[in-house]
Amino acid sequence: MKLFELNNKKQIPAVGFGVFMIPNNGPTYDAVLAALKAGYRHIDTAAGYMNESDVGKAIKDSGIDRSDIFITSKLWLQDYGYENAKKGIENSLKQLGVDYIDLYLLHQPYGDYLGAWKALEEAVKEGKIKSIGISNITLNLWDKFKDGMSIMPVVNQVEFNPFVQQKELRKVMNKNNIRLEAWYPLGHGNKDLLENKAILSLADKYNKNAGQIILRWIYQEGVISLPKSTNPERMKGNIDIFDFELTDEEMQSIQILDTGKPTHDPEDLSNEKRLMSVKIHD
Hints:
Elements: E1 3-5, E2 11-13, E3 17-18, H1 27-38, E4 42-44, H2 52-61, E5 70-75, H3 82-96, E6 101-106, H4 113-125, E7 129-135, H5 139-145, E8 155-159, H6 167-175, E9 179-183, H7 191-194, H8 197-206, H9 210-220, E10 224-225, H10 232-238, H11 248-255, H12 269-276
Parallel strand pairs: 3-4, 4-5, 5-6, 6-7, 7-8, 8-9, 9-10
Antiparallel strand pairs: 1-2
């Protein structure tokens, strides 16, 4: 697996396995075991996915040394604020059954996120978390967020794929040496994306599928991708992207597909109200 370097000099696998919307108590356990067997070494979960315990069990039962697996999790809104966040971090460590988490993110940009960020910074100093980052932070939200930090985020996990390229956000993140991570890297099964003529033409040339072309493009853009599948063959295919390279012209043929229209707008107040009401524990 290829690695990217983060702004704190730690390294992260370029392609991770996402477990969003995979149920706990069995399905996530099976999926993570299969992903690790396929060669993944980066698992992306969240307190809000409510499947951290399955992720932890699968990692423990995989027989792979903990130090060889990069675990990402995220703090949910219910646990924002300084004191709540300290408890949320401890709960994630407990659910995962680990002594430290490689990367811990603020999942959404609402509520007392600066109080929560302070708790994340303390957890880094205590060795409970190796790296911290943000998620769903837009350009406008970044301007509100940045002044409350003493540790710079290593990543910003946002919607990213050929149709949603976050070009203006990336310029600002690059200035701060914050790497983008892509959720919905394959457009959440978007037929228009996966059947795009330019992408299919490249798939035919390189004897790959459309998803592999997209993930290779994301890798060459310097963005971490988090594809999700419960199909073992598709899992293998999604990391079989390191035996070819797209030319500059081919990269540009995908860059022009950008619509600038994400499916999720973190600045939409209706999203804030809806997500703030979601409780994941008593």
